[in-house]
Amino acid sequence: MAPASEPGSLGARLRGHAARVVGILQTRLELLVTELQEEKLRLGLLLGYAAAAFFFLGFGVILLALFLTVLLWDSQRLLALGVFTAVFLVIGILAALAAVRAGRQGSRLFAASIAELAQDRDMLQADGHDDKKHVEKR
């Protein structure tokens, strides 16, 4: 029987497998943290731009509607107000539908990590089958 410190012994192989598993887990956790940080930055940037766009476009559209309503005040004020009301309602409904559709799509957060973990699992299962074959040959 070989001593546990010998390179080909069962204990050395188990320590080697454990070290590989710990290394893989460490790498995957680092990948998860990186993906989370990237997603946080992306969402922050998206929210900032969306807030600025909403603010400035909202005021621009309201001022344009007021300008055109005042311009048509003497001749077609009710028509101008009705058209702008209809346009704003249609745009609001379309935006709400787009938001619902975007909310249903789900997030791709951790997709790369999940794929890497699946590859790691498959690799470790293949190594386990190789070890069983190696033990059976003895």
Output the keywords.
138 residues, mainly alpha
Characterise this structure.
This protein has 138 residues and is mainly α. It contains 3 helices and no strands. Helix 1 packs antiparallel against helix 2 and helix 1 packs antiparallel against helix 3. The mean pLDDT is 80.
End-to-end CA span: 13 Å
Radius of gyration (CA) equals 31 Å
Structural class: mainly alpha
Q: What is the strand tally?
A: 0
Q: For the report, how would you describe the main beta sheet?
A: none
If helices are DSSP runs of H or I spanning 4 or more residues, what is the number of helices?
3
Percentage of residues in DSSP E strands: under 5%
Q: Please write the string of helix (H) and strand (E) elements.
A: HHH
Helix content: over 70%
Q: Assign an overall shape.
A: rod-shaped
Any low-confidence stretches, pLDDT <50, length ≥5? Answer: none
List the helices and strands and how they pair.
Layout: H1 10-71, H2 73-105, H3 111-137
Question: Could you give a quick summary of the protein structure above?
Answer:
With 138 residues, this protein is mainly α. The protein has helices spanning 10-71, 73-105, 111-137. The chain starts with 9 loop residues before the first helix and ends with a helix.
